[in-house]
Amino acid sequence: MNHGEAGIRTTESIGQTITRTSPRVGPLAVYIDPRTWGALLYALISVVTGSVYFAWAVAGISVSLALLILIIGAPFAFLFLLSVQRLAQVEASLVNALLGVRIRARPVLSQPDPNWPRRLKALAIDGRTWNAMLYLVLQLPLGVIDFSLDAFMLAFSLGVMALPFAFMFGNPVIMPAGPETLALRASVSAVTEVAGFLMLTASLHVIRALGRFHGRYAQGLLGL
Q1: Among 65, 116, 146, 182, which one is most buried in terms of CB atoms within 10 A?
Q2: Distance between CA 8 and CA 71 in Å, rounded?
Q3: Taking a C-beta distance cutoff of 8 angstroms, is the pair 170, 126 a contact?
Q4: To 5 degrees, how large is the angle CA 9–CA 61–CA 107?
Q5: Distances (CA, A) of 160 to 9, 68, 164, 184, 188
Q6: In the chain, what is the greatest distance between 2 CA atoms, to the nearest angstrom?
Q7: Cβ proximity of 218 and 89 under 8 Å
Q8: Residue 77: is it exposed, middle or buried by C-beta count within 10 angstroms (0-12/13-18/19+)?
């Protein structure tokens, strides 16, 4: 077993531990569910990894096609396709660790061959190579959408929860302090705080569901 496969096995065990320890009872359990915060962290990381994956895939395809007419074109294409498989292994490890979805480690080449032209052909006709390529290209738009949606939901929910402080410390000229004013502020603050808390809880459920969906999607494209 090489170091890459050992690392993936380790992250698989971490993902299994997350799944076993994740609470499943009650809507408020989302706050202590590791998958919730793993999905949120993954959404943040995916913006960076998605940019790297997309740039590498587009640049690699372009340069490989441009160099195919030269003698160095085939070796470069082989190295590029090999790197795509390696990046797929790295991404599978990340999904295993943060989203708690088990993606089985797979060898880059099922039958290692010392003849690199045959290895290039094996990589080129392997459907898993192109599934991984598709995943790398789509990771950028999906990562941006996922992160933007998560950030909007959290910012809006926390903003609503912060409104009671504006009511409590409002401008006394506009709303002079008095028994009725203080009672109004207290009632509005309580309702707003509860509404913000419910929105935050719903947002975390959506974030966890998005993480679960992305895990299944990654499992389909990066799995065996």
Answers
A1: 146
A2: 35
A3: no
A4: 20
A5: 43, 57, 8, 17, 12
A6: 87
A7: no
A8: buried
Closest residue by Cα to residue 106 from 77, 125, 121, 126: 126
Q: How far apart are CA 183 and CA 220, in angstroms?
A: 56
d(CA 154, CA 207): 10
Token pair, residue 65, equals 């096609």
Q: Which of 123, 94, 95, 118 is nearest to 107 (CA)?
A: 123
Per-residue pLDDT for the chain (224 aa), expressed as one digit of tens each?
444 444 445 444 544 444 444 445 578 899 999 999 999 999 999 999 999 999 999 999 999 888 888 888 888 888 898 899 889 989 999 999 999 888 876 666 555 555 667 777 777 888 888 999 999 999 999 999 999 999 999 999 998 888 877 666 655 444 455 555 556 566 777 788 889 999 999 999 999 999 999 999 998 888 76
CA distance 183 to 93: 54
Spatial neighbors of 37 by CB under 8 A, at least 6 apart, are none
Exposure class string for 12-49: b at 16+ Cβ within 10 A, else e: bebbeebeeebeeeeeeebeebbbbbbbbebbeebbeb
